[in-house]
Amino acid sequence: MNIKSDIKDPKYVNRYYVTEVDSFEDSIYCHHAIIGENFITEHVHNKDQFLYTEGGVVFLKTAEKSYFLPARHYIWIPAGIRHSIHPSTPDVVMRNLYFPKYDTDQEFYKKISIYPVDDLLNKLIMFTNRWNGNIFPVEEPKYSLAKAFKLLLPEVSQHELPLALPYPNNQKLKDIVTFLESRIEENVSFKTLSQKFNISERTLARLFQKELNMSFIQYYTILRMLTALKLLLDEKLSVNEVALKVGYSSLPTFSNTFNKVIGVRPSEYVKQKQLLI
């Protein structure tokens, strides 16, 4: 499928996310477009945002974390969260729905999260392509259908993925994280890290937990899997080559870890990606 064929307006006009999304408090705003920019500057809106992308890797950054949005996944961004969007290419297609708050909203809608998109949700996303701009409550049945899209999300989104890494504030930990990123193919051990940065293993473990609210192994595993996702999407490498580049000498171990974090095996992920090209 040509992901650009159903985009009515390929230009990113008037920075709609600043000028139009919040123009009417009770409307649902729909926008499908090629990004057309190297990044979307930091902004905030008063509506919840559903964001699904096609055609490349997208990083979404907040003050606290960097989120990685791979193919066949969506991110839910609650109202009031300042964020910027950084695509791997301006040709990435964004499919957005912005929803007002409802009295019936569940806890699901109150935090930023990433979920895989199954076949049902994918069809529903493609259905929304017929909508553009504001959808008002008086526009029935269109408004009820759009609202139902939001109400269905908790039912079809059962497996939240930890595709985000927090930013450390501690300078030593910043240096450690930078080192891990630069040596991702080496499978750096906790002991090696402790010795290189002249810090006891006990203190280092506490630093990860205090600063990042996760253990070293949790952080390092997610870092390696996010890097693997980027390599699979951008570098056209085989699964075996990607495993080696993120420090796994055992392909089964890499595949099992990938499946645990991402929800599918890397070979299946590659097949899904190819279906979207």
UniProtKB/TrEMBL annotation:
<dbReference type="Pfam" id="PF02311">
    <property type="entry name" value="AraC_binding"/>
</dbReference>
<dbReference type="InterPro" id="IPR009057">
    <property type="entry name" value="Homeodomain-like_sf"/>
</dbReference>
<dbReference type="InterPro" id="IPR003313">
    <property type="entry name" value="AraC-bd"/>
</dbReference>
<keyword id="KW-0804">Transcription</keyword>
<dbReference type="InterPro" id="IPR018060">
    <property type="entry name" value="HTH_AraC"/>
</dbReference>
<dbReference type="InterPro" id="IPR014710">
    <property type="entry name" value="RmlC-like_jellyroll"/>
</dbReference>
<protein>
    <submittedName>
        <fullName>AraC family transcriptional regulator</fullName>
    </submittedName>
</protein>
<dbReference type="Pfam" id="PF12833">
    <property type="entry name" value="HTH_18"/>
</dbReference>
<dbReference type="InterPro" id="IPR020449">
    <property type="entry name" value="Tscrpt_reg_AraC-type_HTH"/>
</dbReference>
<keyword id="KW-0238">DNA-binding</keyword>
<feature type="domain" description="HTH araC/xylS-type">
    <location>
        <begin position="174"/>
        <end position="272"/>
    </location>
</feature>
<dbReference type="InterPro" id="IPR011051">
    <property type="entry name" value="RmlC_Cupin_sf"/>
</dbReference>
<keyword id="KW-0805">Transcription regulation</keyword>
